Amino acid sequence: MPKVHDWKFELEQYIRQSEPTKAEKIEAWKTAIGLQDVDGLKTSEYLLETAKEHIEGKIEIGVAQKRIQTYYEERTGREDVASDTKEADIVASRITELLGEQTFQFSPAEWQTIHKRLFEGVFDHAGMIRTYNITKKEWVLNGGTVFYASADSIKPTLAYDFDMEKQFSYTGLSAEAMVKHISKFTSGIWQIHPFCEGNTRATAVLIIKYVKTLGFRISNAPFADHSWYFRNALVRANYNNFPESVHATTEYLDLFFENLLLNKKHELKNRYLHIDYT
Question: What is the CATH number of the domain that holds 125?
Fold first, then answer.
């Protein structure tokens, strides 16, 4: 006689993910809103009120996103609605949703998916690998630029970096050494800059979700308060100008990640990263 399975028991093994806790929602929203600063964007009061309702459990994240989308659809063409604020609100709500999900696959494809989910409807090229070369003038470099990966090398370079990270063993490393390695990996994949826009925000979400799979608990304060520092630290980690005695260094990024992952209290000031700072 075939064995009779208890279908109720088996189904109960698959626990459907529910909304995060109140504390987790606060962490996610703070991080999501703070990350808009990497591109000089500011969220609206309407987003803040919507976030409060989500945190209090009055609405789910999907409803919050629909409210924000509808809010801007109803104001299309109005002069009092800044496009930058619209982008910040929409992307912040999507970051919050992504950070609340306990799902992750460490791969370049996951990074593309994250970018698409963050910027679909915001950028025409959401989730698409760029097909042209780019430069960006940086305040921290006095208008200089990082040399980003060429368009035709993006995919093989991404594959190589992710494969190397998969093979890397954290066994036996101190917490500080782990953080330094994560810092180096982050600066490496950011330098590839696979997307036309939104690279830093997509990188931040990818790394936050990745380090959680490694068992780190994230402090929201660095991204909530110092996301522009995070971007400037990535720039300094990938810029050399030997005649001017400027060398690529992850020292600033290390400080950021030590605050993020080890709850240290390093002072993170953007002026310290400027190439003319003494």
Answer: 1.10.3290.10
